Amino acid sequence: MLNFALVMAKRHLAAVRDLLPIFAVIILFQLVVIREPFPDVVSVAVGLVCVIVGLALFVQGLESGLFPLGEALAQGMAQKGSTFWLLALAFSLGFGTTVAEPALIAVAGEAAEVAAEARFIGRSEAAQDRYALELRVVVAVAVGLAIVLGVLRILKGWPIHRFIIGGYILVMVMTVFAPEEIVGVAYDSGGVTTSTITVPLITALGVGLASAIRGRNPMLDGFGLIAFASLTPMICVLGYGMVS
Question: Rounded to the nearest 10 degrees, what angle do helices 83-99 and 198-212 cross at?
Answer without folding.
Answer: 160
